[in-house]
Amino acid sequence: MSSGQVPFRARPIGSEGSLFVMLFEKKIEPRCAYCTRCAPLDEETVMCLKKGVMSAADHCRAFRYDPLKRVPPRPNAPDFSRLREEDFVL
């Protein structure tokens, strides 16, 4: 295995093949922002080895998932408003 390859591959699912099975979440839409072939220029654009300057939200057929580039969404904050004082007493 060369140093630029990821040890696992994304597999297309469904009839359209637009969603990929990835690490952390079951269905992640491909985006240039977390492709191994892209380097960020700023928050909205990336430099792709295949296509040149592209939007970070775009993708192409050469998409290869890089889990280290992806920032997972924050989990929802828990709702503590329904708890009472009695819930914390042993």
Keywords:
90 residues, mainly beta, two-stranded antiparallel sheet, 5 strands, rod-shaped
Task: Give a verbal description of the structure.
The protein is an all-beta fold and 90 residues long. The chain is 0% helix and 19% strand. It has a 3-stranded antiparallel sheet with strand order 3-4-5, with no helix packed on it. A two-stranded antiparallel ribbon has the order 1-2. A hairpin with a 5-residue loop joins β1 and β2. The radius of gyration is 19 Å and the shape is rod-shaped. About 8% of the residues have low confidence.
Number of strands: 5
Strand content bin: 15-25%
- Please state the structural category: mainly beta
C-alpha end-to-end distance: 55 Å
Flag low-confidence runs.
12-18
Q: Order of strands side by side in the largest beta sheet?
A: 3-4-5
| Main beta sheet | 3 strands, antiparallel
Shape: rod-shaped
In which range does the helix fraction lie? under 10%
**Overall mean pLDDT score?**
77
Number of helices: 0
SSE string, helices as H and strands as E: EEEEE
What would you report as the Rg, rounded to the nearest angstrom? 19 Å
Task: Give a summary of the structure in a few sentences.
With 90 residues, this protein is mainly β. It contains no helices and five strands.
